[in-house]
Amino acid sequence: MQDLFKKIVYTGVGLVTNTSETLRGSVDDLVNRGKISKEEGQSMLKGLQENMSDKYEEFESGITNVVGVVMDKMNVPTTESVKAMEKRIKSLEIKVGLLTKELETAKGGKTAATAKKKTTTTRRTRKKVEEAVETATKKATTAAKKTTAKARSTAKKATTTAKSTAKKASTTARSTAKKAATAIKDAVEG
What is the pTM of this model? Predict the structure, then answer.
């Protein structure tokens, strides 16, 4: 998912760079033809670059929001909830280990009747704990599979949305660059 976001951001950077180069070329052309001074050209470029920087930040923010909304709508588990499940599984594993040690101790140094009674109780408890661990493991596995499927689906939707947004941004940036270049030429020549 991070790779997708990086690709989208890099696409935006490429658009900004391409648009900047187009505008710089138009302004340089006007300076070379003597229509505007070098200082006026630099001032125009600086203003346009600041404007494009603001637009790029809006673009990046919009992509981040789209990805967040898609993740929320898909009900993708958060990192915190997955960590909580992992912590619970570890806790259950520790309990099973302690019960196993208790069982081994019960078999060792007690009278036969006491050991048999504790062994039976420990076996029941151990079985319950093993069942609980197995159930928790199955739930965690199922949740992980669902999470993976949701993440894939979310990534696919985010990719589609991001591509569409990037394409619109690219078209808008090119159009804005052309309009800006035309407006500069018209202003200088007119």
Answer: 0.37
